[in-house]
Design a protein that fits this description.
- By secondary structure, this protein is α+β, with helices and mostly antiparallel strands.
- The chain folds into 2 domains: 55 residues, Roll (SH3 type barrels), CATH 2.30.30.730; 72 residues, Arc Repressor Mutant, subunit A.
- The chain is 26% helix and 19% strand.
- The strands form 2 sheets. A 5-stranded antiparallel β-sheet has the order 4-3-2-1-5, with no helix packed on it. Strands 6-7 form a two-stranded antiparallel ribbon.
- Strand 6 and strand 7 form a beta hairpin.
- Helix 2 crosses helix 3.
- The chain starts with a strand and ends in a 27-residue tail after the last helix.
- The relative contact order is 0.21.
Length: 148
């Protein structure tokens, strides 16, 4: 399901891909259900393309979200945006002990936990492994790893 869940640069929250055309995508906010156009010039990342830097190899976001869900027993995270950076690093160290401390920042962890809470509230099944096809990709995949 994460191939159809998108992060749009400059827009808060997460979006579900509704429709794709030649020049734009129609997405629906998981926060308020409003549909908006997203043009191909905007930076869009499917959550299935995001991974987290670790000291060994990058870990797909889906696996990290599963570990958070196990830690929280399927509930929302206990941390809020007002928690300290130290709290975020300690929490993330429990979830993914081998994360790369030089490449993963507190802002990345905050965004990740925010995404997790949105997915839980929206009852999105991020544990399901999906096969990617060209028809499912809303935009061209990014060549870089994203740790956000």
């Amino acid at each position: 399901m994460l191939t159809k869940i998108l992060s749009v640069s400059g827009k808060p929250g997460l979006y579900k891909l509704i429709s794709t055309s030649k020049n734009l995508n129609i997405v629906e906010s998981l926060l308020d259900g409003k549909r908006i156009p997203v043009y191909l010039t905007e930076k869009v990342v499917a959550l299935s393309d995001v991974s987290i830097y670790t000291t060994e190899e990058d870990v797909p976001l889906r696996e990290v979200l599963q570990k958070i869900k196990e830690k929280e027993n399927g509930a929302k995270t206990i941390l809020s945006s007002k928690s300290s950076n130290k709290d975020f690093f300690n929490y993330f160290g429990e979830v993914l002990p081998n994360y790369d401390t030089d490449k993963v920042y507190a802002s990345d962890i905050k965004k990740l936990l925010s995404w997790y809470n949105i997915l839980i509230e929206s009852n999105i099944d991020f544990e399901q492994v999906e096969a990617k096809t060209e028809d499912e990709q809303p935009t061209e995949p990014e060549a870089e790893n994203n740790e956000k």
